[in-house]
């Protein structure tokens, strides 16, 4: 199925848009961005130049995904989320000259498979959000997030684990965690979590 692009969307002709992907009203997708299949880019969202997005990714309304972000398959970016790209942002240099593209070092946010970032969260590059992690709404993430971690707050701190279904896991003792929704079990070892039978 061909991509569906709203008439009011601004999609650069050099962007690659996968089959079945929808780009909604007033969204902007910049040059050389690559979007996989069956993605959704919500109203007024922004996808920067060269951003790489996998399949089945949802970028909700007003989200800002600045280059050089990389989003793996199945990632969820909530409404008004910001993925930053500059360590030390300034509009001008010490001499008062306006900074241009080559005047600063671009850094990115990497979001791995299945991870979700809640509404109005800010991810401060350079960081990696691990597989199936959950970032709470309004969090400010300044450090890498492990696979399956649940992080909340400003600055964001880990408050538990979530499974692939996204619900918090329950302790089953002996470093095992249980998903109350799917019944899947996970093993914790030295601050990391993995599926027991994976």
UniProtKB/TrEMBL annotation:
Enzyme nomenclature, EC number: 2.3.1.-
Keywords: Acyltransferase, Transferase
GO-annotated molecular function: acyltransferase activity
Entry-linked Gene3D superfamilies: Hexapeptide repeat proteins
Xref: InterPro entries: Hexapep, Trans_hexapeptide_repeat, Trimer_LpxA-like_sf
PANTHER family in the cross-refs: ACETYLTRANSFERASE, ACYL-[ACYL-CARRIER-PROTEIN]--UDP-N-ACETYLGLUCOSAMINE O-ACYLTRANSFERASE
Record-given protein name: Acyltransferase
Taxonomic source organism: Tenggerimyces flavus
